[in-house]
């Protein structure tokens, strides 16, 4: 595969959002709140909040703003009426403190020996920088939604990677654990690799083992690095 750059979805693909958000919720909200149910409730508001931007219903704002706005209803779903502003702000920063899957850093480090490496995420620039600094994610640069003012799966996000990296779309490999993300990338001419993440939602539901439309389907970033000769 003639690839010059590897760009990655982050939430669920590189980092374990569910465990990290639940951990911070347990710390900040206390033992009487079902922290995992809260993490799931908050994540369920992720796509609808972005859709309002994508549909033109409001100007682009970074994901931190959308997370802050959807927080009260997610809290209410698990029986929390309200929290002080400082606690709400700390909860939003939970998304900046997520842990990578165990294979992510070693696999990405191998990939970076050969390819330009970047996130292509709906998370904001500062969020991606914080995740990288916290866990040693070896990005060469940050790409994604805030860079172009659009959320995936808008084509502008996928088009930005080959444009900014000065590569043909077919020389950019999009890596994700979500088949819809990969389908949108393929529609813009990018190559695609699927990473199976069976525990993203705690094992229920279990995502597909492979993506038949992808160039590669693997079980880890280390397996991807091996497949790409790294």
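^ Assign residues to that structure.
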């Amino acid at each position: 595969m003639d690839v010059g750059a590897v760009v990655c979805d982050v939430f669920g693909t590189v980092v374990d959002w569910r465990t990290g958000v639940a951990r911070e919720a347990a710390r900040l909200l206390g033992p009487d709140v079902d922290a995992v149910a809260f993490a799931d409730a908050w994540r369920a508001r992720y796509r609808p909040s972005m859709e309002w931007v994508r549909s033109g219903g409001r100007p682009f704002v970074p994901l931190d703003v959308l997370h802050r706005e959807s927080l009260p209803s997610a809290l209410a779903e698990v029986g929390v009426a309200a929290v002080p502003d400082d606690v709400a702000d700390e909860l939003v920063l939970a998304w900046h403190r997520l842990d990578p899957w165990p294979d992510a850093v070693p696999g990405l480090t191998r990939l970076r020996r050969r390819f330009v490496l970047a996130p292509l995420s709906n998370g904001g620039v500062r969020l991606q920088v914080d995740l990288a600094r916290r866990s040693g994610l070896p990005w060469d640069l940050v790409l994604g939604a805030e860079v172009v003012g659009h959320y995936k799966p808008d084509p502008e996000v996928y088009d930005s990677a080959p444009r900014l990296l000065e590569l043909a779309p077919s020389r950019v490999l999009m890596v994700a654990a979500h088949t819809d993300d990969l389908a949108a990338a393929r529609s813009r001419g990018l190559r695609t690799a699927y990473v199976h993440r069976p525990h993203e939602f705690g094992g229920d539901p279990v995502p597909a083992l492979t993506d038949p439309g992808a160039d590669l389907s693997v079980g880890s970033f280390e397996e991807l690095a091996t497949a790409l000769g790294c």
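The radius of gyration is 17 Å.
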